[in-house]
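User: Hi! Is it possible to get a structure for several chains at once, not just one? Here's what I have:
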Amino acid sequence: MTATGSSQPAISVQELVKRYRKATRNAVDGISFEVGTGDFFVLLGPNGAGKTTTISILTTTLSPTGGRALIGGRDIVAEASAVRREVGIIFQKPSLDQNLTGEENVRFHAVLYGLYPWAPSWRLMPAAYRAQVEGLAGLLGVGEEIFAPVRTYSGGMRRKLEIVRSLLHRPRVLFLDEPTAGLDAPTRRTLWDYLARVRRESGTTVFLTTHYLEEAEGADHVCVIDHGRVVAAGSPAELKAELTHETLIVDAASADRATLRAELGGLGLAAEGDGPFTLPVGGDRTHAVLRSIATPLTLVRTSAPTLEDAYLEIVGRSAADGEDDGTAGDAGEAGGSAPNAGPSAGAGSEGSARA
Amino acid sequence: MRELSAILAIAHRDLTKLMRDRARILGDLAFPLILVAFLGPALKAGFGSPGGLDLQAYVFTGVLAQTVWQSAAIGVISLIADREEDFSQEIFVSPISRYSIIAGKILGESLVALPQALAILALGWVLGVPMTLAGVLALLPVILLIALFGGAFGVLVLSNLSSQRAANQVFTFIMLPQFFLAGVFNPLQGLPGYLDVLSRIAPLRYAVDLLRNTYSAFQPGSFPIAVADAGFNLAAVGALLVIFGGLGTWIFVRAERNR
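Assistant: Yes, the chains can be modeled jointly so their relative placement is included. Here is the combined structure:
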């Protein structure tokens, strides 16, 4: 999954820990992962899982409490300045100066990254810079608008300008921290198309955080974190295979339940609880199991969870685990996730409650 | 070279923002102009010239130094607002030195304070505050130094603040008392013991006094309005500028990363 291209991973994170001052628990709690050069990596997790904290540490604006991280082989603490040159970032909140024009925002960035020397006006900037900005304006589909104050831009336009700006210094890794939050569906779609093109053309490694599962579908590698810990990792297909198990749910009249449970036990199927019984049975085996049950059934249902169900279940499960840390205030959620009955309904309502 | 370019870019951004914000230009000017136009002449009319002291010139020089110093200080503290708007992230994630970022901010906010100084000088001239062209030219570098000093003070204050709300409250506790402790429009001679101690701690005092040294130097024969001599004030301003700027940046950068 990671070893595409160069032997050295673009990002390597080992046992990273961050505890904010005066906090009683770790925001990032010993996570480890690797991102291969040119990969599209997604860090997935609910709000408050530690995604932004991780990005802030990897882009050197926040010190880690423990562990180690390398970007292109350089240590993010010891070689912070070199790392900053290697990364571009789209922040969760817009980071354009609204009082400046689009071009002035781009120019500010270009000078800060040492691409061009400072000059007091557009006209006095080197011809190479002006040509580059005109190219970018074309890429964004704007003309003279690049000289208009950013305040007058639409949300999608601002995001695109930020992406263009962040790629100006040709970073090795582009970090995007929930870049589509607050954008409408068509704008999100355009933005993804644009990013896909950027990846294709520049080969930049992309590190995305999101809590939208569908944005992880095209990733090379997905890492799911919650409460600062990695709870699942793999390609979207691997995650799906690993996390989604088809189940067969059966039940009998209350008088027959003991018989049914015994019968299921005879088939080698552990039936827990007092029914309905959820059995780890799917595919061809479903029919065979049903045929061999003699007890009259009052309920037969199969369940094939989607990746989203699996994600919500992971997140729900770790929310229940979170209780052990003595976190106050989410007792209600834990109650919802405790029964292992169906992966869909219970976990679903509970996952959204965490938002 | 790259660091210098970055410092200029950051400073230029502050200046550009000022030029596009006419309401702010007027707002920043209103208060000092009222003091210079109304308070100075009123004091002079009411008290005459006690012991030969020109009260109008006294208020004028005090307000000039105070306005420039405070404008730069508050401007630098606006880095907090940048942080809340997340623009500072764009600056802080860039590969330039943290000291260059602060230096650019101080320079920018000092340049932003200059138009105010020019407006106050112009008003003083219109109102008949005694001044010569040579005197005004000599004041300009001093004004710039005072602005840089104010900016450095702003960094030190900023490094100990966490939010814009805290920044807004700072004014009452840190800026306002210095109006009186630095003798912007009240004399510093014969202060009661505790006020005298506080006055000597107030950094603005040395900025105001240095500006008055320079002003008096070009008004031969007039009553000297400064309390200490120019060399002492210049040394105090220079030393405090370096200490505030260096220490403030160090604390600020540490606090930014070790949240």
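DSSP finds twelve helices and 13 strands in chain A. Chain A touches chain B through 36 residues (CB under 8 Å).

User: Great, thank you!
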